[in-house]
Write a structure and sequence with these properties.
Helix content is 38%, strand content 14%. It contains eleven helices and 14 strands. Strand 12 and strand 13 form a beta hairpin. The chain binds pyridoxal-5'-phosphate (PLP).
């Protein structure tokens, strides 16, 4: 019995069986191309895609026509950051400056960094020790014109929920666009684009109990966020993302959005209770550990802990029934301390011990108890092993 308890919900979520059921007809009889609307096969697929688009828009308080389908949050982040930056550089006033925060997902950091080759300046702003974007640094950075600021809604390692509303006020008054990587937040915490000054927002279906391989990018209409597409083709998705839309995946994504909206409050409460139960069980087992990142504004299903003086890799190797992640870039023998935790200023020994533990829809109380006991024991034996960072 290996890794039978799944506690890695920030890496991906299992698909909700209801979302899977909704998808299946679109792999079988309703296989039509949603862009081939001359016949009923295409029309059925198109209707299903549009219904899914409305459900996702409804979840985030947006209009359906403000969403374009992509292959996931990585692609959405690239289109948003590169597409919006290029638009302003080429079609606008020529400003070539992008602002990101040090704890963003790699795909955001790398998308921004890739713009350097096109002559852009990329500013990487600091985050606070408890895991929040430093808004004073943003205020200061925005004294120089910038085209895009990218700030995630919730961090994928430590789950901290970011001050998007305040960042939006700052960017809007400075004439910059705010892009939000909301891959971890959508479906987990309430987000309403009618109330947020976010201009572009990325979503991933597989982080919210939908299928892998599909995502969306919200592109605000009023005031309009302008972007250039990254590649050319048939001009689907308002010319911003050419390529045949995967109707089945979109349908699963839409179903997942509907389910998330319906269950969000209840699910958040349940996950918080599970997390508390997990920590209580660790305490009861005598484990000594430190929590990384603030607990006050955090995704309900996320925990990130470092057991005292233990390497995360060894704890994971000892706890064979629990599937968790180091939240770090692992190579075969060593753990690179997480750049997210380094951005918080966590010291290297603590960072090398960091374990990301994610609870989700299918997690049970029994699993939480068992996992806590197993991890506490694993940490105890890891402490007696050779320290290998
Ligand atoms: C998972 C994740 C991504 C990447 O999403 P994909 O849909 O897998 O491409 C981007 N940003 C954050 C914060 C994530 O958690």
């Amino acid at each position: 019995m290996n890794n039978s308890i799944y506690l890695d919900y920030q890496a991906t979520t299992p698909i909700d069986p209801r979302a899977l059921d909704a998808m299946l007809p679109f792999f079988r009889e309703d296989f039509g191309n949603p862009h081939s609307t001359q016949h009923s096969f295409g029309q059925r697929a198109e209707a299903a895609v549009e219904s899914a688009r409305s459900k996702i828009a409804n979840l985030i308080g947006a209009e359906a026509r403000e969403l374009i389908f992509t292959s996931g949050a990585t692609e959405s982040n690239n289109i948003a950051i590169i597409g919006a930056s290029r638009f302003r550089a080429k079609m606008g006033d020529g400003v070539k400056r992008v602002i990101v925060f040090a704890f963003e997902h790699k795909c955001v950091l790398e998308a921004a960094r890739s713009l350097k080759e096109e002559g852009f300046t990329v500013e990487v702003l600091p985050v606070t020790p408890d895991g929040f974007a430093d808004l004073d640094a943003l205020k200061h950075a925005l004294r120089t014109p910038a085209s895009v600021v990218s700030l995630m809604a919730a961090n994928n390692e430590i789950g901290t929920i970011q001050p998007i509303e305040k960042a939006g006020e700052l960017t809007r008054s400075a004439g910059a666009l705010l892009h939000v990587d909301a891959a971890q937040a959508v479906g987990k915490i309430p987000l309403s684009l009618s109330q947020l000054n976010a201009d572009l927002l990325s979503i991933s279906a597989h982080k919210m109990y939908g299928p892998k391989g599909v995502g969306a990018l919200y592109v605000r209409r009023r005031p309009r966020a302008r972007i250039l597409p990254l590649f050319q083709g048939g001009g689907q998705e308002r010319g911003l993302r050419s390529g045949t839309i995967p109707a089945a995946l979109c349908v699963g994504f839409g179903a997942a959005a509907e389910i998330a909206l319906e269950n969000m409050t209840e699910e958040a409460e349940r996950l918080q209770k599970l997390r508390t139960k997990f920590c209580d069980a660790l305490d009861a087992a005598g484990a000594k550990y430190k929590i990384n990142g603030s607990m006050t504004s955090r995704l309900p299903g996320n925990l990130n802990i470092s057991f005292d003086n233990t390497s995360a890799l060894q704890v994971m190797q000892n706890a064979t029934n629990v599937a968790i992640s180091t939240g770090s870039a692992c190579s075969s023998a060593s753990v690179e301390p997480s750049y997210v935790l380094q951005a918080l200023g966590v010291d290297d020994i603590v960072a090398a011990g960091a374990l990301r533990i994610g609870f989700g829809r299918m997690t049970t109380e029994v699993e939480v108890e068992l996992a806590a006991r197993e991890l506490a024991a694993a940490a105890r034996s890891a402490k007696n092993q050779t320290w290998a960072v």
